[in-house]
Amino acid sequence: MLQSDKTYPHLLRQIYCPPAILYYRGDLNVPQKTCVSIVGTRKNSDYGEYVVNELVRELAILDIAIVSGLASGIDTLAHKAALKHGLPTIAVLGSGIDNIYPKENQKLAEEIIKSGLILSEYPGENEPTRQTFPARNRIISGLSVVTVIIEACEKSGALITAKLALDQNRDVFAVPGDIDRPESRGPLNLLKNPSAYPLTSPQDLIEYLRKQAPLFQYEPARDKFKKIPKNDYLLKLDNNERKIFNSIALRRSIPFEKIMERTKLQAEIIFPALSTLEIRGLVKNLNGQYYRTC
Q1: CB-based contact 118:24 (threshold 8 Å)
Q2: pLDDT at residue 210 greater than cutoff 90
Q3: Which CATH number belongs to the domain containing residue 283 in this structure?
Q4: Less Cβ crowding at N or C end of the chain, within 10 Å?
Q5: Domain-located, residue 104
Q6: CATH classification of the domain holding 169
Q7: Do the domain assignments include residue 2?
Q8: Nearest to residue 129, comparing CAs of 99, 151, 159, 89?
Q9: Beta carbons of 233 and 29 less than 8 angstroms apart
Q10: Contact between residue 272 and residue 251 where contact means Cβ atoms under 8 Å apart
Q11: Could you read off the pLDDT of 135-154 as tens digits, one per residue?
Q12: Phi/psi zone of residue 169: left (φ > 0), alpha (ψ -120 to 50 degrees), beta?
């Protein structure tokens, strides 16, 4: 894929020194989604694994893609969590497109290709080097509207990615960690400078993403509630869930009967859809009346 091709990722064109050629395997439509990169140490703790899984699980309410570098540790966990929770994921290699590194992630790479994408600026069987990994980090951050750092030492590839993201005028979130662990020093330094927003819960990132303007033209279904607020364009809802969501006022409760009246849907359709919206934290039930939280 050449930089002049229509399929070349839009955000990647905006960075300094974008790759002239990208080699790929998988679905080229995935980078057209809003992308979030998640990176961190190769030697993650149990806490780091917990944070990755919880973050991606909550992000699954949004129509986004997860980007990382297929490295051991946090990167691998981010890709696996995306696959587990139904989000497409993009793996950016520091080796040739036909040389999966590390080798133990060969099976993971094959799973990613089924619904996501593997990218590299290096052809064939090119071996990774100490230079290719930092270079590929500019692609990870360049594809993404925001980069999340989860556990990283003071001198690490994850912090290089964070610096590149900031140089590209992209935002960075960092997860605070225990002050006595080396893997916490990178995120804590980013927060101390400050160069990053603190990520204290998945909701911090969800609210940030909902405030972003759509990157690409979005055409909602043509029905009575077709005017979807811009900050809700990312929500991953089916037609009935979308109709019900749009019929409910923001922070002003309405009764169930009013939802039926506005949507013209039957109760047996509305009840399970409302339950799904409540579980996702998009709608609250207050004494039998419903209101939106976003």
Answers
A1: yes
A2: no
A3: 1.10.10.10
A4: N
A5: yes
A6: 3.40.50.450
A7: no
A8: 99
A9: no
A10: no
A11: 999 999 999 999 999 999 98
A12: left
37 φ, ψ to 5°? -95, 140
- Identify the CA nearest to 150 among candidates 261, 282, 286, 46: 46
CA torsion sign for 64, 70, 17, 186 is positive
Residues 293 and 287 sit within 8 Å (Cβ to Cβ): no
Angle subtended by helix axes 74-84 and 106-115, to nearest 10 = 40
DSSP helix/strand/coil, 225: coil
Block residue for tokens 């089924």:
114
pLDDT class of 212 with cuts at 50, 70, 90? confident
What residues make up the domain containing 96? 10-210
Tokens 């979807």 -> residue:
228
The mean pLDDT of 211-218, rounded to a whole number, is 54
Judge whether 111 and 82 are in contact, CB under 8 Å.
no
Report the share of the chain in percent with pLDDT over 70: 91
SS (H, E, C) 160-223: HHHHHHHHCCCEEEECCCCCCCHHHHHHHHHHHCCCCEECCCHHHHHHHHHCCCCCCCCCCCCC
Q: Is the residue at 227 inside a domain? A: no
Contacts of 179 (CB under 8 A, 6+ apart): 188
Q: If we measure between CA atoms, which residue out of 22, 291, 40 comes closest to residue 177? A: 40
d(C-alpha 268, C-alpha 4), whole Å: 50
The pair of three-digit structure tokens given for residue 284, joined into one six-digit string = 């609250």
Provide mean pLDDT across the span 66-75. Answer: 97
Whether residues 165 and 62 share a domain: the answer is: yes
pTM for this prediction? 0.79
Cα 282 to Cα 294: distance, rounded to the nearest angstrom? 6
